[in-house]
Design brief:
Chain B: One of its GO terms (molecular function) is kinase activity. Chain B: Pfam families: DUF2229, HGD-D. Chain B: Keywords: Kinase, Transferase. Chain A: Its cofactor is [4Fe-4S] cluster. Chain A: Keywords: Iron, Iron-sulfur, Metal-binding. The structure holds two protein chains of two kinds. Chain A contains ten helices and 13 strands. By secondary structure, chain A is an alpha/beta fold. Chain A folds into three domains: 114 residues, Nucleotidyltransferase, domain 5, CATH 3.30.420.40; 145 residues, Nucleotidyltransferase, domain 5 (2-Layer Sandwich), CATH 3.30.420.40; 42 residues, no CATH class. In chain A, the strands form three sheets. A five-stranded mixed sheet of chain A has the order 3-2-1-4-5. In chain A, strands 8-7-6-9-10 form a five-stranded mixed sheet. The longest helix of chain A is centred in the middle third of the chain and has 19 residues. Chain A is globular and about 60 Å long. In chain B, strands 2-1-3-5 form a four-stranded parallel sheet, with helices on both faces. Chain B has a four-stranded parallel sheet with strand order 8-7-9-10, with helices on both faces. In chain B, strands 4-6 form a two-stranded parallel sheet. Chain B is globular and about 65 Å long. In chain B, helix 12 links the parallel strand 9 and strand 10. In chain B, helix 5 packs across helix 6 and helix 6 packs across helix 7. Chain B has two domains: 158 residues, 3-Layer(aba) Sandwich (Rossmann fold), CATH 3.40.50; 143 residues, Rossmann fold, CATH 3.40.50.11900. Chain B is α/β, with parallel strands linked by helices. Classes of the chains: A alpha/beta, B alpha/beta. Chains A and B meet through helix 3 and strand 8 of A and helix 2, helix 12 and helix 13 of B.
Chain lengths: 324, 326
């Protein structure tokens, strides 16, 4: 069997998909990154190679997400793309004619507007991570409920409580206040979903024309309460695709397929990278007052990449090949 | 030995440095510029500045500190009130010399003569006379020095209008060959923002060079003539009385209306009042027509580049994708 790998290394989850040559997703994995992107990728590659039939040929690899550069170096990627493009590519491939993509991940949320299959506009949340998956995670653990149950409990809420969604800190104190007043959990969670959706539409979706079909993806799309809150707020059906939580990886695989389509051989180093030892380290360069934090990646004891220097002194030294 | 006058490489440096340099040199001074922005300069600025100030003002504090270290005799911080009829420069510029004098110790003499041309263009001569007097020169010599310097300024503006960016234009003025910009660009992007944000590679996280490396030609509002800017700003129902905001807004509208760019990026500094207004203004007008892709980028003290890289990549992907689809 031949196919393509897509790897999306986000702040919270690391997702890997294997797609055959007809772009059917055969295998998909959703793992927690736990702050160790390389370890997560290695674990993921190992798991997925065990699931695939022997003699599977990987024709191309694409990486995306905030860890895309790092991962791209580790696995030898053919396409390294930002997550906005990857999500848009995946959504328009799996849901032809999609005009709006709502995406909420662990640390960021974005809206992508497509018209006639082309991205015409997008926005990402600014510095604040209010209203993203990690906030929901945190609230679920504070209330001692599993994040997987969050959505179903919220769906049972009949009269959602009004909660301030502008800022995660305010939302939390508002929730505690409402709890102490005696509102039940279902209504509070339903209210939290509505508050987050309100904040998202206000902040990220500001001024964008939301037209159907609307696709909701990213880890938070698993939360049925959030989906219902979106449907209520925009008055349209919100479609959650089958691979909603690995859409970035699906996009990366599609982009990899595109990258090698012109007969370029893949740069994939093979599933063997799962067993190599990778070590990331950093040091502060004192060559000038910028004091850049240079990050160094070593594969089996040999430095394979450096980045983070503004002037290129360290990264170029390596590219030129005159560095041990 | 000539007196050494320091000019911070911050705020309106990118508009007026050639003018100030020539003017001060003709008054017999040696001009010293602060070093390029580094993490060290920014950190010192943030430490000494009031916390409510915007990022560019904090940075300018760091540059003043840097000049203090260099042991200059004067620091040139003209109090910029107004440079155009019935318009103003941001009030933080007006108060900047006072903020510096209150917060930085060990300062040499600060030349903080006011420039206020709100009523009449020729009110500049009050300024030239006072600066000349501070450096021990008479009114006529000061006036002549300013006339010569103004000619250089006109030459500088001319270079900008030819499409050079400030640093490039300054090196041409200094007699260097203009650097040949690579031809491997397939699209043109207008970067709209305050000069001290977009032209400082540290603060903008190298935005302009990143765009160029990704195959985009970069134009800014400063590559347009005053007339073109005013043409652009005409579509607003009311006059904008901040000079810099008028330039940015007019520039964005001109590029949009002339169809000369494939995308527009607005760069705003966190905590900048006028930016939050003009950014919104530009965005609304441009979105209403929906012809040119638009993106807003917020800058602050963070040095993590991932956010900006992701947005720029996605923006260029979008611009290219949109173009192939037409």
């Amino acid at each position: 069997m031949k196919g393509y790998l897509g790897i999306d290394v986000g702040s919270v989850s690391t997702n890997i998909v294997f797609m055959d040559e007809d772009t059917n997703v055969l295998e998909s994995l959703y793992l927690r990154t736990n702050g160790q992107p390389v370890v997560a990728v290695q674990r993921g590659l190992k798991q997925i190679s065990e699931k695939l039939p022997p003699h599977t040929v990987v024709r191309g690899v694409g990486t995306t997400g905030s860890g895309r550069q790092l991962t791209g170096i580790v696995v030898g990627a053919d396409a390294i793309k930002n997550e906005i493009t990857a999500h848009a590519v995946a959504a328009s491939h799996l849901v032809p004619g999609v005009q709006t993509v709502l995406e909420i991940g662990g640390q960021d949320s974005k809206i992508i507007i497509l018209r006639n299959g082309v991205v015409t506009d997008f926005a990402m949340n600014t510095v604040c991570a209010a209203g993203t998956g990690s906030f929901l995670d945190q609230q679920a653990s504070r209330l001692n409920i599993a994040i997987e149950e969050f959505g179903d409990i919220a769906l049972r809420g009949k009269t959602p409580v009004r909660i301030a969604g502008r800022c995660a800190v305010f939302a939390e104190s508002d929730m505690i206040h409402k709890q102490q007043m005696g509102f039940n959990l279902e209504d509070i969670l339903a209210g939290l979903c509505e508050a987050l959706v309100r904040n998202y539409l206000n902040n990220v979706g500001k001024g964008k024309e939301i037209l159907g079909p609307v696709v909701f993806q990213g880890g938070v799309a698993a939360n049925a309460g959030m989906r219902r809150a979106f449907e209520r707020a925009i008055g349209m059906e919100v479609h959650v695709p089958k691979y909603f939580n690995v859409m970035g990886a699906v996009g990366a695989a599609l982009l990899a397929r595109d990258a090698v389509s012109r007969g370029v051989p893949t740069r994939f180093k093979g599933f063997g990278v799962a067993d190599l030892e990778y070590k990331a380290g950093s040091f502060e360069c004192d060559g000038c007052p910028n004091l850049c934090e240079v990050i160094e990646m070593a594969e089996a004891g040999r430095v394979i990449a450096r980045w983070g220097d503004r002037c290129g002194k360290w990264s170029n030294a390596l590219a030129a090949g005159n560095c041990s | 030995m000539p007196v050494r006058v320091g000019i911070p490489r911050a705020l309106l440096y990118y508009y007026y440095f050639p003018l100030w340099k020539e003017f001060l040199e003709r008054l017999g001074a040696e001009v010293v510029v602060s070093d390029r922005t580094t993490k060290g300069i920014l950190t010192r600025g943030v430490q000494h500045c009031v916390d409510e100030a915007c990022l560019p003002v904090k940075l300018a504090f760091g540059h003043v500190q840097n000049l203090v270290d260099k042991g200059v005799d004067f620091i040139f911080l003209p109090r910029m009130v107004s440079v155009a009829h019935r318009e103003y420069i941001c009030p933080k510029f007006l108060g900047f010399p006072d903020m510096v004098k209150q917060n930085i110790t060990g300062l040499p003499t600060v030349l903080d003569t006011a420039i206020n041309q709100r009523k009449k263009q020729r009110d500049i001569h009050q300024f030239t006379r006072q600066v000349g007097a501070a450096l021990g020169k008479g009114p006529i010599q000061s006036w002549l020095a300013f006339q010569r310097a103004w000619e250089t300024h006109q030459k500088y503006m001319g270079l900008l209008e030819q499409g050079l960016l400030p640093e490039e234009a300054m090196s041409v003025l200094a007699g260097k060959e203009p650097k040949q910009t690579a031809d491997n660009t397939d699209l043109t992007v207008a970067v709209i923002g305050h000069p001290y944000n977009i032209y400082d590679p540290f603060i903008s996280m190298n935005l302009i060079n990143r765009l160029r490396k990704s195959g985009a030609r970069v134009l800014t509002a400063d590559n347009l003539t005053e007339q073109m800017v005013n043409q652009g700003v005409k579509r607003l129902p009311k006059k904008l009385f901040w000079t810099l905001s008028r330039r940015m807004t007019g520039g964005a509208f001109n590029y949009h209306d002339q169809g000369k760019v494939d995308g527009i990026i607005h760069v705003a500094a966190f905590a900048c009042g006028p930016d939050s207004m003009t950014g919104e203004l530009i965005e609304r007008f441009i979105r209403r027509e929906g012809k040119v892709p638009f993106m807003n980028i917020n800058l602050d003290e963070h040095t993590g580049e991932a956010g900006i890289v992701t947005r720029l990549e996605a923006f260029l992907d979008m611009v290219r994708w949109r173009r192939t689809a037409v």
